[in-house]
Amino acid sequence: MHITRISIFQCDLDLKKPYYLSGGRLRFDRLDSTVVAIETDEGLTGWGEGCPWGSTYLPGFGRGIRAGLEELAPQLIGLNPLVPDHVNLVLDTALPGHPYIKSAVDLACWDILGQRSGMPVCELLGGRYGDAVPLVSSVSTGSPDEMLQTVRDFASDGYFMHSVKVGADVALDIERIRYLTSNTPATEMLVYDANRAWLPSEAIAVMNGVADLQATFEQPCETYEECLHVRRLTTSPISLDEVIKEFHDLVRLQADGAAELVNIKIGRVGGLTKARRMRDFCMAFGIRMLIMDTGGSVISDTAAAHLAHATPERYRVATWDCAAMLTRATATGALADNGVIRAPLDPGLGVAPIADELGEPIAVYQ
């Protein structure tokens, strides 16, 4: 089997309401998503999606994916998509770095591999653990009352874990954290996510200011070194997210004892192939994981659900349903309901793109 044609679609994904993170300093109304269709000489088509969370969250942006694919597409024609590791080697040789550009291609290859083998991707990635995977909510920055109402709305939909966006200033964040924690049942888990907003001194002040709560904090500072400094001067559990970009970041985290949790975002690390390697490392060293994508529609959510479903429940914490925040659907795929999501049982990713939503491709390579 070999790749004969690659079609690129661009989709503007409007959010149902404005979303604020990193203490409110970053605002988002719309996501720029790139959907990739890879066709083969045997008539199989694989689908993938790459969608940075805007242009200000991480070093990546929607147009960057499409520019990178223009560079990489000639290297892909003729490759065997049934061997994703080899495809990744070719991509990394042709364009070092820029993993977010390559994720959609990798997802499409896994989709083809699953279709050809007659198996859902989760089974190729290790199995299907449990009936469903818990979802984590995403609570935009706002007043304490607004944020609590959002948490309660998610809880009424079956969610038991909430990613709460903080990072404004020390006094306000301490107020938010104490208010939300005191008004949330112990059966629910709150993770306070600063998305790199705090300076180390601010993170230390907030985390020590609520140390009696033993709250969990995600990505308190910009760099790994800053987060490690905070870790050494605080006692609260820490989850690292944005600084986990490559496999060696996990090796360093484990050696330093830098965190109890990691957030593996498949789009950020380059797709399922590389995320699976990172997942296996975390399992070997007893590091629990959130497994999700950076953003996107049902296609990327479904891919993340497959890897999360293929991860034993002892090690996985939750995944994310970004599609629930959007005003439109690009495809059908993983079913999210009552605070959980299930990877499809169909071979491959199990996604079915909606042609009218995708429109015509903006580029075709063959």
Topology:
Blueprint (H helix, E strand, L loop, with lengths): L2 E19 L4 E15 L4 E6 L11 H15 L7 H11 L4 H19 L3 H4 L8 E2 L1 E4 L4 H13 L4 E5 L4 H13 L6 E5 L6 H10 L6 E3 L5 H9 L5 E3 L6 H10 L4 E5 H4 L2 H13 L3 E5 L5 H12 L6 E3 L12 E2 L2 E3 L2 E3 L9 E2 L1 H4 L4 E3 L1
Parallel strand pairs: 5-6, 6-7, 7-8, 8-9, 9-10, 10-11, 11-12
Antiparallel strand pairs: 1-2, 1-17, 2-3, 4-15, 13-16, 14-15
Helix pairs in contact: 1-2, 2-3, 5-6, 6-7, 7-8
Largest sheet: 8 strands, parallel
Number of domains in the coordinates?
Answer: 2
Oligomer: single chain
Report the average pLDDT across residues: 96
CATH architecture of the largest domain: Alpha-Beta Barrel
N-to-C CA distance: 15 Å
Strand arrangement within the widest β-sheet reads 5-6-7-8-9-10-11-12
Which regions contain 5 or more consecutive residues with pLDDT less than 50? none
Quickly count the helices. 13
Q: State the helicity in percent bands.
A: 25-40%
Q: Radius of gyration in whole Å, from Cα?
A: 20 Å
CATH uppermost class of the largest domain: Alpha Beta
Global shape:
globular
Summarize the helix and strand pattern as letters.
EEEHHHHEEHEHEHEHEHEHHEHEEEEEHE
Which class of secondary structure composition applies to the elements? alpha/beta
- DSSP strand (E) fraction? 15-25%
The CATH superfamily of the largest domain appears as Enolase-like C-terminal domain
